[in-house]
Amino acid sequence: MAETETEDSNYRPVNIEFLEQGGDELFDIFYRTESFGEVKFVKFASSSPEHQDKVRNILESGETEEEFYIHEEDLFKYYKHATNTLRAMAKNPRIPQKEKAQKVYEVSKTIMEEFFEYNASNKILTSSEEVMSIMDECLSHQDVGFSALSEITNKDYYTYTHSVNVGLYCMTFGIKIKLPPDDIKYLGLGGMLHDVGKSKVPYEILNKDGKLTDEEFNEIQSHAPMGQEILQGMECYNTKVCRMAGEHHEKYSGGGYPNDLEGEKIHPFARVCKIMDVYDALTTRRSYKKAMAPFDALILMKKQMGPEFDPKLLDKFIMLMGPDL
Ligand SMILES: [Fe+2]
Ligand SMILES: [Fe+2]
After folding, report:
1. CB of 48 within 8 A of CB of 109?
2. 63 and 104 within one domain
3. DSSP-assigned beta bridge partners for residue 13
């Protein structure tokens, strides 16, 4: 007899594709049924090795449109499995590079979505370190340029897609300017986590359409120091990563927030993050504006916002945005 549970809100949809590889931690996989208006979650398999065949059969049959779920408390374990699967995929020479990058993007996006949209605990952010390191492998091996990235990034603006996009841009920049391997990872990770403080700002304020009051504006601005605090509090992130969250709204010419730092006083990684942050915001769609074309965004950044950015870094970025060599 299959086990059933009915508490709707405690189940999270998962992508069964990412369960192929398995892992040491066990959890149950459910599917959802509805009868007489009642929703039930029925156990389909567990992540144990004995059940892996069931998962593999589904994948081989191509019937993956069925939705699968896990219990919310198993999210962290699920992402461990998903990153194991991604690692194996990244090493597989038969899978095209672009497809690999797309899969990593997909998993990164759901991690950030869980965090921002479904209030998963901070612990889930530690999974982002693993996905960024896999992303680094995919991007470095293939020498992917910025214009290739535009094919995998999502053009609709949500805090979670924006976070992953900024992480990708920062990482690509690090690869292109040939930073040491550890720094490439810190830059990518810091980019992905730069806005984590927004999880503490009320949704209505973050998404308010009209003019913000001074108080609301202060609340939004607090996401920078709050983000730094969250990451420092987790005690697993390098200072460079934490400072990217804290200083990405500082302006090179001064007058930014939260500390009105200027020029070289702003951490170089935070200066890179600011460029990628603005670039992604301009080139994605919002409810009130269309996405700008990359070229137009660069012109606006250079001509109208120039002094806000580190000029050397901005010029380097503009140069790298040309066609992939
Ligand atoms: Fe921000
Ligand atoms: Fe941002």
Report:
1. no
2. no
3. 69
Name the helix (H) or strand (E) containing 289.
none
Ligand 2 ion local residues (Cβ < 5 A): 195, 277
Ligand positioned closest to the Cα atom of 256: 1
- The pLDDT of residue 187 is 96
Whether the predicted pLDDT of 50 surpasses 50:
yes
Does residue 226 surpass a pLDDT of 70?
yes
Read off the CATH number of the domain in which 126 is found.
1.10.3210.10
- Which residues in 264-294 are b (16+ Cβ under 10 Å) and which e? eebbbbbbbbbbbbbbbbbbbeeeeeeebee
CA of 171 to the centre of ligand 1 (A): 17
Number of domains in the chain: 2
Average pLDDT over residues 18-41: 81
Range of the domain at 184: 96-320
> What pLDDT does 323 receive?
62
Average pLDDT over residues 166-181: 93
